Amino acid sequence: MSGDRGHKSGLIAAWIVLLLIDGLATLGLMRLEFGHGLDRLFQSDTARYQDYAAFAEEFGETIELLIRVEGEDLAAPESLAALETFLIELQLAGETWTVLSPLSIPVPDDQGAAVTLDRLRGPTAGAWARAFDTQPLLSRFLREDRKAALVTVLGVADTSDLDVIRSLATQHLADGELDFGISGLPVILDRSRALLVQDFLVLNGAGAILGTAVAVLAMGSFWLALITLLSAGTAVLWAMGVMGWMGIEINVISIALPVLVLALAFSDAVHVGLDQRALTKDGMASPVWPALRRIGPAALLTSLTTAIAFASLGVSGSAVLAGVGAGGALAMIVACFGVLAANGLVGATLLRVLTPDRIYLPQHRMTSRLFDWQILPRIGLAAPRAVSIAAIGVAAIAACLYLTASPRFSFDENLRENDPARAVLEQIERDFGAMAAIQIPVEAGSGEPVDMARSIIAALPQPLAENAVSLAAMADAAAAAGLSLDELMRSMAPWVQNALIGGANGRFLVSVLFDDTGARDTRVLSRAIEQRLDEALLPDLADQVGRVTGPYVMSAFVSETMIRALSVSLLLSIAASGLIIAIWLRSAKLGLLALVPNVLPVALAGAGMGVSGHGLSFAAGIALTLAFGISVDDTIHVLNRLRLASNGLRPACLHIRPVMQQVTPALVITTLVLTAGLSSTLAATLPTVVVFGMLAITVLFLALISDLLILPAMIQRFHL
């Protein structure tokens, strides 16, 4: 009796501790913040980022907000008045904003004096047509048919700024019967953040529902499914709480982490629950703690391998990825302890009011058959030599093809093809030309900046030279307006003056506008410009021209470095996992051969990206690294069952057939639970999240087939 009271007191104390940790985790969860993360993704010690940081500090951010204004005739009095009012209110609303528009461009009037379009005398249509003939710069901001205009705003900082601009546009443009659309990098990044929050709520809710449904179906027992659900829920709460306390934000890189934790927690809980069911079937009256002792070490080991996969993201060189990696690694370890703690407490508590048979009901025969894919291990064990040789050969070929996948990145890859921001940007580029810019910083020295700019532009390939914006273009615009260059520049905003005339260090910019078709094309174009300038310019001038930079150039080169580093992180994860398995089982051969069925799925997925030409994106690189960490989990559970069955004696292959009969349903169930949880990513609005989910699910299914077919074959073939 006293022992029962002691057991009850111990349970109560354990529940108090668990609930206190839950409360602490809830406080951490409330600290979670959301952001797209792309503004800090490339911060690193790479040379290209350091170039950009120096450029941004001297010239300021060159990221523009683009507003396309459309009407029947913008020269009509009502339309022009609405546009003027909007521009005035826009400049007053943001003291640090620089607003450029068709009304910022000086044009000559009929007396030869420099004025703006709204100050031209005479019939408006004719006056504006003459302005186009004399001022070439006007076509960058106004369509010649006067039906569309471009307004650019520099200095937009955050969502609140965008809200103000949208409100002003609605108030003054829409009310003036003018249509408008807003785009540019600030909008694209803000859209990514907004879609991120939406996806986070949908993905985690749908992932939990789908994972629970599969778990209930697989378990065939309400109480066992309840234990599984509460265990997984505790794991997610603890993991997200840790991320909140660590200050790790949910961004386009880490958005899938909660779903990943949930899926892995379900997987561990299923393995423990099925072992508890097996022990109950063998007549054990209290299977909770024995099952935890049997499966717990393997669950901790699987969490460790996944944590290593996360931690390996630190080699990418990105502070954002390193932070996600550190937070994810700790979250995985904490989540595993949450699963085991909640499973033990809930199970032990239920056993005080229910019998083991009531809790751990046997599976329905039809359900059991659904999850029992014994055909695969039978094939592997029937032809172990052929299966092993084929697996090693295919893995080697796939790994070589994986290496052909080139890095791929674009700022708008987080938006769908039909996203409004993307559609507006495409329309702006059709109306007014390319908006992305490659910046060429030039040391003015003792030279004449206008002449230097003309020489640099003349050295560029002709299509690019036509799209260059520099002090030379301003000089031409001033001449067209009948002004001196100094007079024109004094009328321009301070940022424009600083960029074109020269910063504090005596430098000025030549901006080359181009169509942004992705990082790979930007790298090719940037290298071509650098090579052309080195070859075509006189040595003295070439020495004064800096390496090309700007947000598009920097992200193109730094993303290549970081995505290639993700492949290194994958290799580190593979090596670390093999080493851990070898140490755990005290067999270097087993540690090495156990990697084959896990490397093969990742190599096949990577080969598919290389052969298809889709390339390797951030989402794909992270998905492959983490999917490898997850796929190792099934291998570890097989090896753990084999270790328990053989009692540490060699050769363990003598027990592989009964072990595969026992473990196959658990592997199938956990893979389906993981897939169900991750399948919610396929409905995400962020394309990168969809890519992550597709690759992760593909690798998981390939890993399941490998663990059921190849792993037993290799264990049998090499007499492990």
Automatic annotation (TrEMBL):
The chain crosses the membrane at residues 12-30, 201-230, 250-274, 295-324, 330-354, 375-405, 562-585, 618-642, 663-683, 689-711. Residues 222-352 form the SSD domain. Gene3D superfamilies: Multidrug efflux transporter AcrB transmembrane domain (1.20.1640.10). GO terms for cellular component: plasma membrane. Coiled coil: none annotated. It comes from Aquicoccus porphyridii. This is MMPL family transporter. The lineage of its organism: Bacteria, Pseudomonadati, Pseudomonadota, Alphaproteobacteria, Rhodobacterales. SUPFAM superfamilies: Multidrug efflux transporter AcrB transmembrane domain. Keywords: Membrane, Transmembrane, Transmembrane helix.
